[in-house]
Every structure is written in structure tokens, then in C-alpha cells.
Amino acid sequence: MSDPRRFGRISLSQDPARQPPVSKMGFDPLIKMPSLTDFSLQLDRKKRDIKATLLDQSFAAGVGNWVADEVLYQAAMHPQEMANQLSSKEVKKLHASLRK
CB 86: neighbour CB atoms within 10 A? Predict the structure, then answer.
């Protein structure tokens, strides 16, 4: 591969899932969603707004801007609500919306 702008990179390894950056990625909502209890505990550790938390790839891998917007819309939540201050009802709605 030849990329004069150096936007791309190829790395070969025996076990890519155990090496950064892949090893630092969070759960994938389409493949394996954490239990509601684990999800709630993960949110309690985040001291930033819920949209930034959803966009953080170390929290939830593969969630982009439009997915985060749609999840928050379905959960009827404002994107600037703090992740660690959500009620258990809000966490449950968010968990269900992210699984869809």
C-alpha cells in the first residue's frame, strides 16, 4: 500500500483483538450488549454528558453521531444529560434503545 498522505496504516499481528487500538474498544451493541447492571455501572463511572459517552469508542464501539442521536431520541433523553446522573429508569430506556 502506498499512501503519500499517510492517512492509512496496516499492521499485521497474531491476535489483533489483544492489541491496541482494537483491545481498547468497548462493547459492540450489535454483537454483545452488556447486562443492564453492567451497563449502569459503566455509565456511573462516566463524568461527562451522555452523547459524548455514547460516541466514546472505548465505551461503545461502532456508535457514531447519527446512531447516538437516534438512540437518545428513542430513549427521550437530552444529549447533555450527565451519564453518571441518569435515573435507573433512564438507564433502562437507554439500554433498550441501544440494543435495537
Answer: 21
